[in-house]
């Protein structure tokens, strides 16, 4: 089912995908996040959960409390959503120890790009990245805005296990792993002591779709100290509010 500006796709009898575009684009993602906020803000009984992605919003609902036709009408009533660009954005400054044992692929990635490892670090840490979505594993942040000079193919031999908190590059994306050892075919360039997921926190997920992330290089001693602080429950990534 298509409506002006979006398409509805049933995912079983208790979920509906609202597709807002066919490309990965910041403007499309901003509309996804704005629609997500509008639907959650409606406080409608039976609307169980929303999951924003790159270009669509998955809506889980209880059809006994919120029939599909009523959900479709609710979506239409909140379209187009308010401009998500208004107000302020959350930006996280995330410490990263690049290279060495924490970035096993940094040197090879740099050589393939015709750059020094130091240049890769400077490029990677020199801009803001948009959190397009959280997925794959609890707290894994898919980030857009990677410098084209750092685009790199995924590994032909994926690792069955990578270090918790890995910072990596896969294709034209970069990402931040949660504090879990995960399988991955992405190129490992660093590791953060920040815990993007902690079920013991009041809000388990540190990052949210629409946030910005700026990486800050640190040395190994700082990594070890911040890791200890993070294990004790401290949030070692710094949150800022910036104008949109």
Task: Give an account of the 3D structure.
- With 244 residues, the chain is an alpha+beta fold.
- The protein folds into two domains: 2-77, Gyrase A, domain 2; 89-243, Cyclophilin-like (Cyclophilin, Beta Barrel).
- Helices cover 22% and strands 32% of the residues.
- It contains five helices and 15 strands.
- The strands form three sheets. Strands 6-13-10-11-8-7-14 form a seven-stranded mixed β-barrel. The protein has a five-stranded antiparallel sheet with strand order 1-2-3-5-4, covered by helices on one side.
- A hairpin with a 4-residue loop joins β2 and β3 (15-19).
- It is elongated and about 55 Å long.
- The protein starts with a strand and ends with a strand.
